[in-house]
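Quick one: structure tokens for this chain, please?
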Amino acid sequence: MSKTKKNNVVNFPEKLNSGDREVEAIVFAAAEPLDIETIESRVSKKVDVLKTLEKLQKFYANRGFNLICISKKWSFRTAENLSNLMSQQKKC
């Protein structure tokens, strides 16, 4: 049996606090991309929404879906390298 090297340690994501979870839930459930002001109006307490979005963006960077910002609006999207799984091809 081979020994595991110190550099082969799995790094689990840091724990999300309640404010992070609220922002995550709001963006995830939104029918359309949201701007920071809209998100701020929906969280239950004072949260640095931009900082939280940037934290979540890093958290989701290597997952099947990513948190992205386009034209100052935030949304979750399928990871670019997996987008081919979302298309259907039909033959006539």
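The domain at 18-80 is CATH 1.10.10.10 (Arc Repressor Mutant, subunit A).
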